[in-house]
Amino acid sequence: MLHSTMQDDYQLTIAPIFRYGRQVHANSKIITFTGDGYVESTYSQVADRADQLAAALTRLGIAEGDRVGTFLWNNQTHMEAYLAIPCMGAVLHTLNIRLFPEQLAFVINHADDKVIIVDASIAPLLARVRDQLPNVQHIIVKGPGDASSLGEGLLDYDELLAAEVPGYVYPELSEKTGAAMCYTSGTTGNPKGVMYSHRSTYMHSLMVTSTTNIALAERDRMLVIVPMFHANAWGTPYAAWMVGADLVFPQQFLQAAPISRIITDTRPTLTGAVPTVLNDLLHNAPNTDMSSFRLVMCGGSAVPRGLIDGFRAQWDLPLVQGWGMTETSPVCAIGHPPKEMGVLSETDWRVKTGRILPGVELRITDDTGAVQPWDGESLGEIEVRGSWITGSYYDPDGKSNDASKFHDGWLCTGDVASVAPNGYVMISDRAKDVIKSGGEWVSSVDLENTIMGHPAVLEAAVIGVPDDRWDERPLACVVLKPGAAVTAEELRAWLTERTAKFWVPERWSFVSEVPKTSVGKFDKKVLRAKNTAGDLDVEQLA
Fold it and tell me: Looking at 436, 440, 489, 539, which residue is catalytic?
């Protein structure tokens, strides 16, 4: 047998990413919007501060394997934590600032965070659960604001760093070591923890810089809108540092007006966001100068055709759809139109969920577990595996039952989809959201996207409701654009020309907003609960 002469034991950790960006791209920029202006630092300066943070945490007793929580906006401080904590051998636990108090306390205690770094402006959110966190030894506060609600013994971030010097000696780590933790958004039950290894983060970062993904490169300036507590901001901070792209952080200023200002001032070339944020920008800041962008990535939930067409019509800007989940680091597929378009238009390809990326294996299985063909028609639950796909949930107590989510090395995603022969995935629904009417499946996602194509509609969410004749029928909950007017009858007539007749809802409810999860997805369980309680004003057409 011939043996490799390559350095197969070279460890793919975040440390070489950190070292490379620090040395090769020392002058690349980290820009943070403050609401009034900007704080700008170089990679070299941020790297020095990361060293000081690692030294400060070591002085506080943080050792390899300990979890350090971050309760922060997207900003330079968070980037310093992204670099320092994993490279010193600890685990970065990004805390979702939008979790309900009981869920927030659960994830902090479940992860056993020893230290939490918190932005003073959101300290009251953490203070609600402070007395429920017996294992948190230190709370470090950064930025302006009143953090007194957190009690006594608080440590000042800048003072801690000022007491240290750059030049921290980072340990040699195994690539299989845990680097970062994210918890699912907890739409059902308690959130579940996903531990990203150094290797999975390294491999995912490489893919983000690939031309099959968004080709993030040194020439780019990335506006990081996706929260850094949500699947590591889709992996873009590490990928950017790997190639020396500038990073622009908006902190809490995520509404159309400040985002428009940031774009005008900093001229980013790339960004990624959920549809609700991009819809807000399109409809409430349509005069934004978007000419600096080469691409906008959208994900988190299905991207409506109307949003894709709107970006093209308003700014001649391609919107590319990405798909993934917390368990997949997260990006598994991205929707660039293929070289051979066939009979489909560019938009037809862009509304598809995306083409599976190299490094990820995907299959779809029916209710019996039988693998279905990639023929563009057969439906099944998506299962994936790969180097940045989790194999189990974080389970320190051995109490988790993962049997329904993991088997034979595959992650069961809960998404129902078809796959074309060329690897393009088209998600029809979440398994829990698909509607079965008279024995036939109705895709709530397809209905939502079609309804949102109406010029008067801003958002639409579709849920299944009980029906005496058909067992279940769709109820469409619609948010109209400001100043727009349309009736349920008019929407039904419009929809009849664009979808299967038996899919068209008889039940309609006009709402002021669609409830969202902590990461911006439509929260259909809230709509179902409101409908069950009689809190939705439902119009039923004959």
Answer: 436
